[in-house]
């Protein structure tokens, strides 16, 4: 069995659990470790193991991918595996880690279940983004169209299929998957969507009018947009990675033909995650 390992490089306070967990993994599988993370565990954690080194150009061949960190680390691992649909097990060594399955200390006791194949796989939908005639990339959480200038808004003419929806005068517009409904979209008052829902949500960022609200659409909808701005350009961010584009070029966002498969070894439900990580339903009293 081969396991590819991605990790955060900022969690020295979790050193003991991370070292223990990686040592346990190395005993049950051949490891391939992300280059930057390998340098971190050698330099900062003092751990030396035999493994292959993963670079961006290394083709994904592992049976499983393990992400040790938070949601940013998980998204990086998801970009690496692309359309291979290699299952990802998210281990939280950060603060929130909404995409992760277990804390690092808990995961140590779950390795036997990994070896025995006692886990569930949860498929998460992906966005595919094109600008003009060019494929730009995929996103697990969201694609966000955003202004470049701080002092002005942009206008985003938006279509759902062939139907004109509206012109969003705003700082931007987020198109989120159910997975991304707990991320950037949530911070602008977008709704939470259950992971298996077949929907996307369009959430405006600081709209110029109060009658622009988040909108849930079926995930078989092709969302088309054009942007106009005083700066003649805008930013397109895919899971937090932003690039500039010229206004006027058509943007098309649709559901991708593949999904990202999350490993559920600890058997925490989405409701469990809401209560634990978003304090869902918690009574806050002075």
TrEMBL record:
<dbReference type="GO" id="GO:0005737">
    <property type="term" value="C:cytoplasm"/>
</dbReference>
<protein>
    <recommendedName>
        <fullName>NAD kinase</fullName>
        <ecNumber>2.7.1.23</ecNumber>
    </recommendedName>
</protein>
<dbReference type="InterPro" id="IPR002504">
    <property type="entry name" value="NADK"/>
</dbReference>
<dbReference type="GO" id="GO:0019674">
    <property type="term" value="P:NAD+ metabolic process"/>
</dbReference>
<dbReference type="GO" id="GO:0051287">
    <property type="term" value="F:NAD binding"/>
</dbReference>
<keyword id="KW-0521">NADP</keyword>
<dbReference type="GO" id="GO:0005524">
    <property type="term" value="F:ATP binding"/>
</dbReference>
<keyword id="KW-0963">Cytoplasm</keyword>
<feature type="binding site">
    <location>
        <position position="76"/>
    </location>
    <ligand>
        <name>NAD(+)</name>
    </ligand>
</feature>
<comment type="similarity">
    <text>Belongs to the NAD kinase family.</text>
</comment>
<feature type="binding site">
    <location>
        <begin position="141"/>
        <end position="142"/>
    </location>
    <ligand>
        <name>NAD(+)</name>
    </ligand>
</feature>
<comment type="function">
    <text>Involved in the regulation of the intracellular balance of NAD and NADP, and is a key enzyme in the biosynthesis of NADP. Catalyzes specifically the phosphorylation on 2'-hydroxyl of the adenosine moiety of NAD to yield NADP.</text>
</comment>
<feature type="binding site">
    <location>
        <position position="206"/>
    </location>
    <ligand>
        <name>NAD(+)</name>
    </ligand>
</feature>
<feature type="binding site">
    <location>
        <begin position="182"/>
        <end position="187"/>
    </location>
    <ligand>
        <name>NAD(+)</name>
    </ligand>
</feature>
<dbReference type="InterPro" id="IPR017438">
    <property type="entry name" value="ATP-NAD_kinase_N"/>
</dbReference>
<keyword id="KW-0067">ATP-binding</keyword>
<keyword id="KW-0808">Transferase</keyword>
<keyword id="KW-0520">NAD</keyword>
<keyword id="KW-0418">Kinase</keyword>
<dbReference type="InterPro" id="IPR016064">
    <property type="entry name" value="NAD/diacylglycerol_kinase_sf"/>
</dbReference>
<dbReference type="InterPro" id="IPR017437">
    <property type="entry name" value="ATP-NAD_kinase_PpnK-typ_C"/>
</dbReference>
<feature type="active site" description="Proton acceptor">
    <location>
        <position position="71"/>
    </location>
</feature>
<dbReference type="GO" id="GO:0003951">
    <property type="term" value="F:NAD+ kinase activity"/>
</dbReference>
<keyword id="KW-0547">Nucleotide-binding</keyword>
<dbReference type="GO" id="GO:0046872">
    <property type="term" value="F:metal ion binding"/>
</dbReference>
<dbReference type="GO" id="GO:0006741">
    <property type="term" value="P:NADP+ biosynthetic process"/>
</dbReference>
<feature type="binding site">
    <location>
        <begin position="71"/>
        <end position="72"/>
    </location>
    <ligand>
        <name>NAD(+)</name>
    </ligand>
</feature>
<dbReference type="Pfam" id="PF01513">
    <property type="entry name" value="NAD_kinase"/>
</dbReference>
<dbReference type="Pfam" id="PF20143">
    <property type="entry name" value="NAD_kinase_C"/>
</dbReference>
<feature type="binding site">
    <location>
        <position position="171"/>
    </location>
    <ligand>
        <name>NAD(+)</name>
    </ligand>
</feature>
């Amino acid at each position: 069995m081969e396991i590819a390992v991605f990790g955060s490089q900022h969690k020295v306070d979790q050193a003991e659990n991370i070292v223990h967990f990686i040592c346990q993994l190395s005993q049950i599988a051949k490891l391939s470790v992300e280059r930057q993370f390998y340098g971190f565990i050698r330099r900062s954690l003092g751990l030396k193991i035999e493994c292959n080194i993963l670079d961006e150009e290394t083709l994904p061949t592992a049976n499983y991918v393990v992400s040790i960190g938070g949601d940013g680390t998980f998204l990086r691992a998801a970009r690496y595996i692309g359309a291979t649909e290699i299952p990802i097990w998210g281990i939280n060594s950060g603060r929130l880690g909404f995409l992760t399955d277990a804390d690092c200390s808990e995961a140590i006791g779950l390795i036997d279940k990994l070896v025995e194949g006692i886990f569930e796989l949860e498929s998460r939908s992906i966005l595919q983004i094109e600008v003009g005639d060019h494929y730009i990339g995929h996103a697990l959480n969201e694609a966000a169209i955003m202004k470049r200038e701080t002092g002005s808004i942009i206008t985003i003419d938006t279509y759902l299929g062939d139907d004109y929806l509206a012109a969003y005068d705003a700082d931007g517009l987020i198109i989120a998957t159910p997975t991304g409904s707990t991320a950037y979209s949530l911070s602008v008052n977008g709704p939470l969507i259950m992971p298996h829902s077949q929907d996307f949500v369009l959430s405006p960022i600081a709209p110029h009018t109060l009658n622009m609200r988040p909108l849930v659409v079926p995930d078989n909808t092709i969302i088309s947009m054009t942007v106009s701005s005083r700066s003649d350009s805008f930013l397109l961010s895919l899971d937090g990675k932003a690039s500039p584009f010229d206004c006027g070029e058509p943007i098309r966002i649709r559901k991708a033909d593949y999904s990202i498969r999350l490993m559920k070894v600890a058997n925490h439900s989405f409701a469990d995650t809401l209560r634990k990580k978003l304090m869902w339903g918690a009574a806050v009293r002075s």
